[in-house]
């Protein structure tokens, strides 16, 4: 007897990047930060682990909201903590998108939006980007007009480019929400504000952020949404009561308290990113200027999948990503290698292996 | 502009039990375990906190699944880890229940099933229990026949009673799933098996368990679903990739490794439960025999809400719960006090305060 919902039965399921659990890999495939989190994080976890784990966490994450709000110069009721940015996106879908409604997102981009729409029984439309990763507004406008949510990762993945805010405002759906997925924003500007939420149309914008990337905390699962309190209040009704646990709340507070640590790691990653970009270009790759902690490398005539596999044989993991039906006309496959900016040493090992492979 | 889905707009939202963040309360309102978790849990968290928090956790929770499977004498692909039992229930709803389909559950019982159905846009029907908490099968059968999921907490909350398995099998929907929410099962039998999953009809049953209660780990948010691998595989497509974090996975593994610690705490709670039950009955309360870590106390003619408030003034929190439209005919409000079995000292303070209030 098949008991699944038809959309779940059809679903292939989102496949996250490979996560080898054994040591010995140079892991440049899931955009993790190669540097450890602030030492304050470990201290905060130790203190929390010695505390009362037998009781439920604060369902509202009050202490975290206070800190995030101070950082972004808002009131705490603009902040919704979540079990990773993926949960923020899931909550958005369940709060605002009825089955049959349409969501839209750039393409190529983060493919999870499509999976979440499928789970919700919603329609999804790809806003196909030009070859230089710019918007094709003419094609996008009719889709945006009927979209309930337009999701835009900024910086975008896999390209790493950052779109200016005045372009993003043109993507605001007249009867829906614009969700700016800022998972990688700190690598563009670790002091980036969210002032556009308080400007005209800001009550139709949600910003999502994560501690997985710039704060080196992919392991604790912590993200948060920022939006007008009316939107946050509705999203709160949908989230599980205790979606964030005692340890991750403590870790997240400590991480936000050590801005200097995060800024310093961002500076190191930015420096390595420049070096990696130049090294790849010197080897004949096309690499758009990245504002994230990864770069997108393509090479005319190259078999990118073979390069990925040859690197993997040498225990170096990068992400091979094919995007079928891409390009402004949807008539070609865009594929390439997305390479996380690791430590200088990791990047040296990667380049060494790459030279053997090419 | 109202952008919410109509069902979310209407939703009042589930209100969890009060969670005062300051000390000084005798907290008997959310069925937390008064004893700390195994010391091995703290050690495991410290080790994990010194490890690589900058990388993502194992998306499958392999180590935890191996341990839970061994404990329940199954293969690991029967196990799905989740961010608390609430997440297991959310995943079940999103995997199996299309908007417009019907779910059912006993009443009075855990009210979250209703909230989750509302969020999903599903219908819900209450299977009204008899006054002695037994099933009214005659009334239930026609509802069960059209239900996609029947949720049954066993032991039930707020009553604490345990229904025998042969009764539960009569609640299996012919074209749906029976979900046995065993959040409190260890307080009935800390060695309870899940053999009914491998019996006739077992491929339509899902068992959910949690580490929040018997393992004293409400703070880390960890639950798991147990079901036929085909069901688990579908649910895995719906969950967020990294729904459980590195620290909670480590803590959960360590907790399962120390069965003796959990069994010992269960024995203590069972002893205190007997004492609490007798003390309440001696004070004129009706208390059904509880197999959980709480008791349900009612007293003819008593104003239960006033007792709750008077206790709260004395910094003793119990849960006042009114269930309107209850009883086999749905024509009366069942209300009473749900009192968590705390330590002997907490229960003494509770009884002392109660004697002042009555």
What value does the average pLDDT of chain A take?
96
What is the third-level CATH name, the topology of the largest domain in chain A? Aspartate Aminotransferase, domain 2
CATH architecture level-2 label of the largest domain in chain A = 3-Layer(aba) Sandwich
Total count of domains of chain A: 2
Report the structural category of chain A. alpha/beta
- The rounded Rg of chain A comes to 20 Å
Helical fraction of chain A equals 25-40%
Shape of chain A: globular
Report the count of strand segments of chain A: 12
Q: Trace the largest sheet of chain A across and list its strands.
A: 2-8-7-6-5-3-4
Multimeric organization: homodimer
For the biggest sheet of chain A, the summary is: 7 strands, mixed
- Strand-and-helix sequence of chain A, N→C? HEHHEHEHEHEHEEEHHHEHEEEH
State the fourth-level CATH superfamily of the largest domain in chain A: Type I PLP-dependent aspartate aminotransferase-like (Major domain)
Unreliable stretches of chain A = none
**Euclidean distance between termini CA atoms of chain A:** 51 Å
CATH class of the largest domain in chain A: Alpha Beta
What does this protein structure show overall?
The structure is a homodimer of 358-residue chains. Chain A has 358 residues and is α/β, with parallel strands linked by helices. Chain A has 2 domains: 17-36 and 260-357, Aspartate Aminotransferase, domain 1; 39-258, Aspartate Aminotransferase, domain 2, CATH 3.40.640. Chain A is 37% helix and 18% strand. Chain A has 12 helices and 12 strands. Chain A has helices spanning 6-10, 39-49, 62-72, 85-96, 112-120, 137-145, 165-169, 229-238, 246-257, 259-282, 304-313, 344-357; strands at 26-27, 79-82, 102-107, 123-128, 147-153, 177-181, 205-210, 223-226, 294-297, 316-317, 319-326, 332-340. The N and C termini of chain A lie far apart (51 Å). At the A-B interface, helix 1, helix 2, helix 4, helix 8 and helix 9 of A face helix 1, helix 2, helix 4, helix 9 and helix 10 of B.
